[in-house]
# Entry
Amino acid sequence: MNIKRATIFHPVSLSLIASSVLYGCGSNNSPNVSEGLFIDAAVEGLHYTSGNTSGVTDADGKFSYEEGQNIKFYVDGLFLGEVSGSDIITPLTFQTVEESKVGNVAINIARLLQTLDVDLNPENGIQIPEETGQDLSNLTIDFTLSTEEFAANDDVLQAIVQITGMTSLVEQNTAVAHLIESLTNIGIEVTVADNVDSEEDSDPDNGDNSDSDSDGSDDGDAGSDDGSDDGDAGSDDG
# Structure
């Protein structure tokens, strides 16, 4: 059984946890190494590399990075992305749209991470399964795809099947709501970008079809009633 520790972040305590810690100050040959947090809630189990520094994020989402170096994140060899080292990294960090907008890249990363969570409950933190025995380095995922294309992408589906046995991503609206809440908890106010389609917009004809079916049903009932009345009348005449 996987048991996760609930982690609640507040802007003040988070700033203390995420304060840069320098390890290489005493040597000119050693890089300065700082610490940061990966947040969509705390994300545990992400592999990372930064220069000659590497490791796995812990239950607080903590990672180490070499100052001046980028940091790369992976899940079982699956490349999530590369960003500049920072005290706080979120799915928002990987996108190129303005920081106050949650775009396709951030949503797609959040959906994938929340789908890989061992208990599918990101409210108590996101824990990526360890030592799944899967090597996903042969998969390439394009997080810039539209959310609809991402959810149907073969490599995305293969990754989640191999790691979790699931066959689909968590619902988009649920993942976005959790991401926005997590960002708000650390003092980052965001809204969803205008070019992101909601799940309700994915099939705009549903409402029309429903109305059409309803009309057809009414017409059929009317015809049935007419036929019944005619039949009764004919019986009476006979």
User: Anything to note?
Assistant: The longest strand covers residues 78-84. The chain has a mean pLDDT of 80. Residues 94 and 235 are 77 Å apart (CA to CA). Helices lie at 11-17, 104-116, 147-152, 154-164, 172-185, 206-237.
